[in-house]
Prior knowledge:
The structure is a single chain. The protein has nine helices and ten strands. The protein is an alpha/beta fold. Strand 4 and strand 5 (75-77) form a beta hairpin. It binds adenosine-5'-diphosphate. Residues 21, 26, 44, 46-52 line the site of adenosine-5'-diphosphate. This is Cystine transport system ATP-binding protein.
Amino acid sequence: MSEASPSGGPLLRARGVRKAFGDHEVLRGVDLEVRRGQVVALIGPSGSGKTTLLRSLNGLETPSAGTLELDGGPRIDFARPVPKAQRLALRDRSAMVFQHHNLFPHMTVLQNVVEGPVQVRRVPRAQARERALALLDRVGLADKRDAYPRQLSGGQQQRVGIVRALALGPDLLLFDEPTSALDPELVGEVLGVMKELAEEGWTMVVVTHELSFARAVADEVLFLDGGVVLERGAPHELFGNPRQERTRQFLRRIL
Ligand code: ADP
């Protein structure tokens, strides 16, 4: 995958993102830039706004203020009503992997992967099927194509969730704590797939409590606390030599 964006700028640029639920301000002015091929990890205590930030990046949440721009797309200003076309365009650029995979229980693995590209992206079914099979093969699940989700382990289900996101052909992959609902022995296989995707050059933003994963795979780590980015940096800096006492406290508690 190419490092360069058509404009030479980052793939994603968010500025001053704010989000309130009622009078609870959950994001209080967050800046985020993600270059093509980069992996950014969002860490921080529960309730610090990580998921809300991630969901804001693909239009699942609409911020109350700030701007968001994906390379080649419009600069969305959340202080004004966001036109539907802009919201849809934003959603088309990324794909989200959730904590719970949300697979359709009545569909086979293959059908689960094929449906998105066919329904959402209008890809011809035969083409979507071919691509789905290649992706399932890549994550070692080709032999499960006709199985139903309930016949798979949690780790296998989550790998199908990842394939389903890849099948949409997004520019940006968003992961919302993809391993936190898994039994500990199943976490490794999912993180392994994510590591491979990072090595292949996918651009990824990952909310995670798996700090060793963030340390090994991320290019940049953002520590959120109380709706702001308290500290950001390369993993060896942020984990090895955190500047803020609050970051040190968090890392001590979780490591
Ligand atoms: P994190 O991912 O860091 O745990 P979240 O972004 O999930 O944090 O949540 C931040 C805060 O926003 C929490 O206090 C949460 O209760 C609140 N929140 C999140 N979504 C909603 C919502 N839809 N309505 C009201 N409050 C919400």
